[in-house]
Amino acid sequence: MGIEEFFRQFEDGETDFSGVDLRGVYLRDIGLMGFDFTGADLSNANLEGCDLQGAELCEANLTGAKFRNSVLDDVDLSGANLSGTDLSGVRMGQVALHKVIMIGANLSGADLLQAGFKDADLTGTNLSGAFLGETYFYNVNLTNVNFMGAECLSERSMKGVIFCNTIMPDGSVRNDNCGS
């Protein structure tokens, strides 16, 4: 499906775009609530300021995409590749982030209330200034992750985590399980 066809179907009210190739598409400030982008290629897409509440982005390729200041509440991102993605300032409440690859992503200032990271790789991700209330991290690689100034990061919500050169909210550096 080409971009022109996507916009035609979008204007006709279609919401199922699973598996489509939308690399580099420009969808800034658009309401995409409940849309299905399962397995879609949205790499390098501009989705800044979009409302994606309840959308399905499972297994999607989101590498290099821009979601700055978007709303992604109740979105399922399980199995998605978010490497190099700009998610700064996003609201991502109750988001499923299971088996995601999020290497080098920017989530600075993001609101991740009740988000769930499980079996995920966050190597080199920037979570500085993020709100992490009730967010859990189970079996997550946090190598070179920056949590500086993050709020509500709880040790109780972390199990099986790899800390290696991980900057904690207070500026301290943790190296638990580093190299194991």
Give the helix/strand layout.
Layout: H1 3-11, E1 96-98, E2 116-121, E3 136-141, E4 158-159, E5 166-167, E6 173-174
Parallel strand pairs: 1-2, 2-3, 3-4
Antiparallel strand pairs: 5-6
What does this structure look like?
This protein has one domain (15-180): 3 Solenoid (Pectate Lyase C-like), CATH 2.160.20. 44% of the residues are buried. The termini are far apart. It is built from one helix and six strands, in the order αββββββ. The model has no long low-confidence stretch (mean pLDDT 96). It has one helix at residues 3-11; strands spanning 96-98, 116-121, 136-141, 158-159, 166-167, 173-174. It has 180 residues and is low in regular secondary structure. β5 (166-167) and β6 (173-174) form a beta hairpin. A four-stranded parallel sheet has the order 1-2-3-4, with no helix packed on it. Strands 5-6 form a two-stranded antiparallel ribbon.
